[in-house]
């Protein structure tokens, strides 16, 4: 399940975090034009409605049933979105929450189903007490995961109070695979497996063995769903990502931290150390890895001194340019909404705040209105998605560095990028490996070939590559300290 299917020349995933289905449906035309392969959408199943705090984003990680009315819209809106996006060749991956149901307490979910977490009763599925892990499976007195050094606790006890499904039983697998098959039959192409670390690998593969092939209306017959599993592995716990690489791809959380530390120059890190970035840094094999600079958790509760987000826009653009120009892992771009942070003692007390809107409903997306950040539309990022597509499959070449924070590299004649993460202008002749011709800097210009276009006057214009692949490139320091050229 680690193989993904994209329209030819596309590769990158965008997470439209907390967007409504109707807004994603309209965004798909823009995404198709700009070469995105797929969209990750928020968990689409019926979820708990949390009022204390009021309607946090994380209410959607508490399933009540697998029916489809959620904060992002109705079942019909979901299906319309999948069809419209598929018709444009932009595929939908859903955030798949099947390790658990809600936390404690009782109520009514977003599609009208009742639930009682204390009694472990979810009639909308239905699940009852026997479908959950209890004292026989989980060794802790609290029923909570207390020690991440014990794989049995990690898999069989509750993650922050969330009622933990017995994923090894045929009945539970039939319900969760049935949910996924419903979506596959509607045209969904992939799954981010939430909390995969908390599920036994054998249970995960038994569940996926029940999945249908993708819908033949849009996908070649025999195509399997794409799966990337959320396993947070910093290298210090009992459960490791490599236990899951045989099933599908695995999130590589060290990617965002490592690149964040390099661009921020934390711990003596330098851009020049990136020459062997990827496996050379002790990370997963790139063909197993699913990678991102930040995600919806790390941008809120991660190590905020390492992780870069839209709030550090210039460094964020450098980090994204590097991950898109380099060749490592399957890349996901984060697309966020704004919230006011309240940082006390290094922790954001507002990290729970849900998407823009009121009374638990979400506002329509208007990119760049101050509420919806739309990083995926930032020119410096979306043009680098193009660079990434053009260079797909062409190895890194023409590496250069100054031993410090200035680097340059090519992609075997398809692209070339220079990054100047130091003070002062960088100006010199580079061996780019590019064919002779005139190129535009895609970090600051609209087009890759003349006429370069004028993005608000920022465009650095044309660069000439001569017959031996040499080009004189000047890269200012400060805002957008990069030049990227591609065929
Ligand atoms: C909420 C409340 C809790 C309450 C609970 C039940 O915040 O106080 O007890 O509800 O009522 C998200 C939020 C949670 C939220 C949950 C359900 O982040 O705060 O709980 O939704 O509404 C571990 C897991 C990893 C998980 C992270 C958050 O291994 O799988 O914790 N990430 C996914 C999603 C989250 C989501 C869930 C799972 C649950 O991406 O958005 O939670 O569906 C080390 C370890 C990691 C560990 C990490 C944090 O790094 O190595 O394994 O991650 O610490 O503890
Ligand atoms: Ca579990």
Which descriptor suits the 3D outline?
globular
Strand order of the largest sheet: 1-2-5-8-9-10-11-12
Name the helicity range. Answer: 10-25%
Bound molecules: acarbose derived pentasaccharide, calcium ion
Beta-strand residue fraction: 15-25%
Q: What's the total count of β strands?
A: 24
The low-pLDDT segments are none
Class computed from helices, strands and strand pairing: alpha/beta
Helix-strand layout with pairing:
Layout: E1 12-16, H1 21-33, E2 36-41, E3 46-47, E4 63-65, H2 75-87, E5 91-96, E6 106-108, E7 114-116, H3 151-156, H4 170-186, E8 190-193, H5 201-208, E9 226-229, E10 249-251, H6 253-264, E11 289-291, H7 298-301, H8 313-325, E12 330-335, E13 343-344, E14 347-348, E15 357-358, E16 361-362, H9 379-391, E17 397-401, E18 406-410, E19 415-420, E20 426-431, E21 437-440, E22 462-465, E23 470-475, E24 482-486
Parallel strand pairs: 1-2, 1-12, 2-5, 5-8, 8-9, 9-10, 10-11, 11-12
Antiparallel strand pairs: 3-4, 6-7, 13-14, 15-16, 17-18, 18-19, 19-24, 20-23, 21-22
Helix pairs in contact: 1-2, 4-5, 6-8, 8-9
This protein binds acarbose derived pentasaccharide (ARE) and calcium ion.
Residues 58-59, 61-62, 97, 103, 148, 159-162, 194-195, 197, 230, 232, 237, 297 line the site of acarbose derived pentasaccharide.
